[in-house]
Amino acid sequence: MNVIVIGPKGKMGRLITQIAAEREDMKLVGGVGPAGREYIGQDLGSVAGVGYPLNVSVVDQLEEIIDTCDVLIDFSTKEMALEVLQKAVDHKKAFVCGTTGFSPEEMQKFQEASQQIPVLYAANTSKLVNVMNRLLEIAAVAIGNETDIEIIEMHDRWKKDAPSGTSKEMGEVLAEAMGRELADVAVFGREGESLREENTIGYHSLRMGDTPSSHIVTFGGFGERLEISHHSYNFQCFASGACDCAAFLADQAPGYYTVKDAIKF
């Protein structure tokens, strides 16, 4: 399968390019960066730090190379991702997106696009995070209505959106398992004097240093508490998962897919 990586100079784009370059089932046919960047026109392998040339260039106009690919992988910015999504629809190309920070209205564009092309959107492409979501669902069904649920998420100082897309997804898993809507029960941080409202899900976002990603969900009872957590040491797990998602999506019919469809467990 032929792959184009959007944003190959970014922290995720670099890793995705490096991992895809080593996979026998993938061929990198190009990278796309923002217009005007100094690395436009350079070899993709050099830009992404692969260690050897890939004999394809990084361009700033996706239309120049989009017809050479089967799947587009995008972990860039939400503005760039929305542009790529439209071009994927125009050229009928499968699209994997791991960019976060979209509004509900923007997410609706992904749903609409999935009527014409295969779309896989994932706030987190780690297999272990998605196993954690399954555990959260089990815990929420069993004890969600008798405990206080708090979500603590940690990321590096450069992450723009808060709470993280992964923690929002976790909150949705919890809320759905308890028959609620996350928008009705989420509480973001606390200040002042007031009792904790029952049946709410608390959110706390930490941004510090170069912390890759940590998510801790606590079910607080009386005399005991349960914690389910995931900690990444670097971003390689997300890049590997993104490539697995792309490999899955290449053979799918138009539709809206998630990591649970692509990564079997």
UniProtKB/TrEMBL annotation:
Entry-linked HAMAP family: DapB (MF_00102)
Signal peptide range: none
Occurrences of domain Dihydrodipicolinate reductase C-terminal (ranges): 129-262
Active-site residues, Swiss-Prot/TrEMBL: H155 (proton donor/acceptor), K159 (proton donor)
Domain of life of the organism encoding this protein: Bacteria
Keywords for this protein: Amino-acid biosynthesis, Cytoplasm, Diaminopimelate biosynthesis, Lysine biosynthesis, NAD, NADP, Oxidoreductase
Binding sites annotated in the UniProt record for NAD(+): G7, P8, K9, G10, K11, M12, G98, T99, T100, A122, A123, N124, T125
Protein name: 4-hydroxy-tetrahydrodipicolinate reductase
Gene: dapB
Catalytic reaction list: (S)-2,3,4,5-tetrahydrodipicolinate + NAD(+) + H2O = (2S,4S)-4-hydroxy-2,3,4,5-tetrahydrodipicolinate + NADH + H(+); (S)-2,3,4,5-tetrahydrodipicolinate + NADP(+) + H2O = (2S,4S)-4-hydroxy-2,3,4,5-tetrahydrodipicolinate + NADPH + H(+)
Subunit annotation: Homotetramer.
Binding positions (NADP(+)): R37
